[in-house]
Design brief:
The chain is built from five helices and 14 strands. It has about 230 residues and is of the alpha+beta class. It has two domains: about 100 residues, Rossmann fold (3-Layer(aba) Sandwich); about 120 residues, RNA polymerase II/Efflux pump adaptor protein, barrel-sandwich hybrid domain (OB fold (Dihydrolipoamide Acetyltransferase, E2P)).
Length: about 230
């Protein structure tokens, strides 16, 4: 009986009913939203294989960024009813063209800066707190113009002792929060002046003990992992 079917089985039946009509395009509006995480991931893979097998264009609506990356050949980001960016999953994830899309795709660390000296292919950007950051001069900004520097949590690394050689960006701070996320951890690092950075890294047993709350650390990253957007 229908009421005896599991959530995943019901989704499969609904898909079969739609596909038997051989549509040119199939619209799926958050079809996996009611499923638990394990079943949701299984259905993501099954849907992707099914799409490749039947050769039908799927328009898949989701608010889950990871799901969009897993399922798609191309991603379109819609904001307030307008298409703001479209491209491959790698393009949207690695090089979003606006701050809105960067935030939507998981960038959490943003600095309000002014463009400083140029040392091609990098430029120095200065914060109001006196921090000097280096990033590619992709925005081609004039000197002293306002900008926003963005970096992903997983692009940052933590050290108790400054590494040698040092990365292009290295800042001193103090861990004010540590969150265990299973296979990884999330740290909040407070810099001089009160600015906080979010760092996310693999959870290695016995290795993360030095990075407990209250520890003095250095946080650094490769300037090439940094994106620059014109200031508002």
């Amino acid at each position: 009986m229908p009421n005896e079917l599991s959530g995943g089985e019901k989704q499969r039946v609904a898909l079969a009913r739609a596909l038997v009509l051989e549509p040119a395009v199939l619209l799926l509006d958050e079809p996996l939203g009611a499923l638990d995480q394990k079943l949701r991931r299984e259905m993501q893979v099954e849907l992707k294989r099914l799409r490749e097998r039947v050769g039908i264009t799927f328009v898949f609506v989701t608010h889950d960024q990871e799901e969009a990356l897993v399922m798609s050949d191309r991603i379109a980001v819609i904001h307030r009813g307008r298409l703001v960016e479209a491209g491959s999953g790698e393009e949207i994830y690695e090089h979003p063209r606006s701050r809105y899309v960067a935030e939507f795709m998981g960038f959490e660390n943003f600095f309000d800066v002014r463009a400083g000296q140029l040392s091609a292919p990098l430029r120095q950007f200065d914060t109001a707190e006196g921090l000097a950051l280096w990033a590619p001069d992709s925005a081609l900004l004039p000197p002293a113009s306002r900008a926003v520097v963005a970096v992903r949590p997983e692009a940052l690394s933590l050290w108790i002792v400054p590494p040698n050689p040092k990365p292009g960006n290295l800042l001193a701070g103090r861990i004010v929060e540590e969150i265990y996320e299973g296979g990884r951890r999330r740290w909040s690092v407070e810099l001089a002046g009160g600015k906080r950075l979010v760092v996310r890294g693999a959870n290695h047993a016995g290795l993360n003990g030095d990075f407990a709350r209250g520890a003095s650390v250095f946080v650094g990253w490769d300037p090439r992992s940094t994106l620059v957007y014109p200031g508002e």
